[in-house]
Specification:
Blueprint: E1 3-15, E2 18-36, E3 41-48, E4 60-65, H1 70-82, E5 88-91, H2 97-101, H3 116-134, E6 137-146, H4 148-159, E7 166-170, H5 179-189, E8 200-206, H6 216-232, E9 237-243, H7 253-266
Parallel strand pairs: 4-5, 4-6, 6-7, 7-8, 8-9
Antiparallel strand pairs: 1-2, 2-3, 3-5
Length: 268
């Protein structure tokens, strides 16, 4: 069952010397859900459709937004509108963030039951088919994650690159004690170079991130970047960006990442 998700905005207005206010209701998306056999739970979704969706017969690319709070959906709507990108946006709220985003547990980030493998399987084998059956997708898929879900984006890129065309990870990467796991995953993934043909990956980090005071994540991403460029070469489009003036999840990084993806698409 689908229901509209409404954002209630309180707007204060002044009229002559008397102040008054009114509530304004704005539709931001459709509430959807599916029962996951893989995760053994019901997963809620919020789907935002392009403005002309109901009046056209067009098909649209889909942007999957992890950490799908309403605030993150509003951010995604704002970014796509600024870039004049007509996309179906699927926001995926969390039920157990640590479980779903983490493929392992280490001293720097302990997780009782790492379940990223199951969550990725849910996305690829249940969520994507559900969206493409019920909404007019053109089959082009982009996933965006931030912080812990940014790590998941890179994990998804390495583990199941066939699920998405484009990957955007903001404040994404791993700490040094996670490197043995990700190093082995990279080596395994890159043995099949052709599975990355035509993919796009944008990763961004802050050089003043309070969650990365020793720049461990940044250094791991520099090493990762070298491997991507030297092993995969021009099979895919890859960009690693850092910011000096923004902290955790640099403010412009989502905009810059989606702009990078869209610019690539326009050249094809």
């Amino acid at each position: 069952m689908r229901n509209n998700i409404l954002l209630f905005v309180f707007i204060g207005l002044l009229k002559t010397s008397m102040g008054y206010s009114q509530d304004v209701t704005i539709k931001i998306g459709i509430k959807d859900s599916l029962d996951s056999k893989i995760l053994n739970e019901k997963r809620e979704l919020i789907v935002s459709l392009p403005k002309d969706y109901e009046t056209s017969n067009e098909t649209y690319p889909v942007l999957y937004v992890l950490d799908g709070l309403e605030s993150n959906l509003i951010e995604a709507i704002n970014v796509t509108q600024k870039l004049r990108a007509k996309m179906i946006i699927v926001a995926i709220p969390n039920t157990d963030r640590d479980r779903d985003m983490m493929p392992l547990s280490t001293p720097t980030y302990e997780v009782a039951h790492p379940g990223a493998e199951n969550f990725l399987s849910f996305i690829g084998n249940e969520l994507i088919p559900h969206i493409e059956k019920n909404y007019r997708s053109n089959g082009i898929r982009t996933i965006r994650g931030r912080s812990l879900s940014g790590l998941f984006v890179i994990y998804a890129f390495l583990e199941k690159p066939e699920f998405f065309n484009n990957y955007i990870g903001n404040s994404a990467g791993w700490y040094a004690d996670m490197n043995p796991y990700f190093g082995a995953l990279i080596d395994k993934a890159f043995t099949n170079k052709d599975q990355f043909n035509g993919k796009a990956l944008f990763v961004a980090n802050s050089l003043v991130d309070p969650f990365d005071p020793k720049k461990e994540v940044h250094h791991e991403m520099l090493d990762f970047s070298k491997k991507v460029e030297s092993i995969l070469g021009d099979r895919l489009s890859f960009k690693y960006v850092t910011y000096d003036h923004y902290g955790h999840v640099p403010y412009p990084s989502f905009y810059d990442g989606l702009k990078y993806i869209l610019n690539l698409s326009s050249k094809m």
